[in-house]
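We read letters as residues; the fold follows as tokens. Both lines appear below.
***
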Amino acid sequence: MTGSFVYITDKHKGKPMESILKDQIGKNRKKNIAVLVAVFLIFATACSSSDVKVADESDIPTSEETGDGTEEAESSETEESTAEAATEETEEEEETEEEETEEETEEAFECPWDVGAKNGTTLFNPGGSFLVDARVGAHTDYDRFVLEFESGDAIPDSYVINWTPNKPEGEGSGLPVDVDGDVFLEISMGASFINWDGSEEVYDGPTSLSSALFGNIVEVGSGGYFEGRMLWAIGANEANGFQVLKLDDPPRVVIDICTVDTSSTKFEDCVSSGLAPGFCESLFGDSEEAPSAEASSGPCPPIPPLPAEAVSSGSYFADLDDDGMDEEAFSYFLPSEDMWHLRIVDGTDEFDHPIEGSSPVSSSDVLGAYDMQGYSPASDGRPELFVKASRSGGINSIAVFQLQDCEIYRPPTIDGTLFSFSYGSHFSTVIDASCVEGGSWLEIYTAEPVGGPPPTSWDVVSSRIGIAPGEDFWSVVPMSGGGSYTSSGQSAPISGSFDCTFE
């Protein structure tokens, strides 16, 4: 006898042979259809993924290994899961497709990362690692953006990455990055579009990336490169939790953004990461514990709330009025004024001051607080705020502010001009600045080359600067202890850095 054999088992006993044969044929037909469906789905999946350059970073460690964020969610293989689901045979034939879908929906993905700003070891330092590629990847629960650098270069560790409601401004140009989205993840990083190994190779990879497979990201765009820093903007539908990973071989920075994030603590997470409450409110709304946006009700005259167009930097906390409690200080940029402002929040009181000399193409960040009142018997016990005003040609300008009574005060020099100091290098001039440990003043060293090029020696001039009381106000004055000397050699004897231990 030829053909298929039908084995009679216990569950067939009592059934007519005709019924047994019908059951068996029906099951075989279902199996064949399932296999055909699986093959079709695999083929369809392969074809639909051709419009994205997937960043399959298979060697990505968990964030527990990197010390950055929460453990990375595992991404299953689409093809395998599709085929498995199509070919799986269930013994409960009475179970409907609707019941299966409802069961799957109940297991909602929870975003393992928060929305707060992610910063590197340093924030705004330049970097020389050469960018060779930018790519994106779409995963089940998150979207991925990868920046890859030349093999052997250091992984960039000077970066500031945070959500912003407005399109970020490009490095050097000051123009908004041309990228679509409702909110934007701004990536400012110390790295280069130029290879400084002597070849002067310039980055020629993609500067605009998108994919129909994204779950949240709309578009990724480059904001260019200027003086050792580059900027990228990720336009998205929602400001969701994200993580930053740093990987070796080749050196990469990986940014993962959740496609769905139902967290009820986005505002709090934003503030706790160091961003200003007003800025976080513009992204995530207010909370029951959030500071009110209404005008100040404290003892000082009220000031207007933070404008909706304001783009804020991270917050710095210090006791600026010697009352035993920390105040919050942050800077923000107003596009309508093309200027940065300093705002200090003291309980229900708020104070505001424009940062004169600030640049729209350079972030004016609050660096820290340090008491530079060099005449200790006259010190009022209140530290000064150091705020980066601008950067031009490698020279950074630092402005100094005080909180006095109901206003922010910027001490002038003895000739009446607003005080600021510099550090960095430009062409042949190198400037070092430092806070004197155990003292209450600044030391400034300026080195100028002699002879050359290359130079044969350097003339170095040092000075000490403090704050002293006047009849009506405190002013910045030179102090004793400065001098000058000559250093031989082609290299400058100072590094062009700023060294200060802030409160």
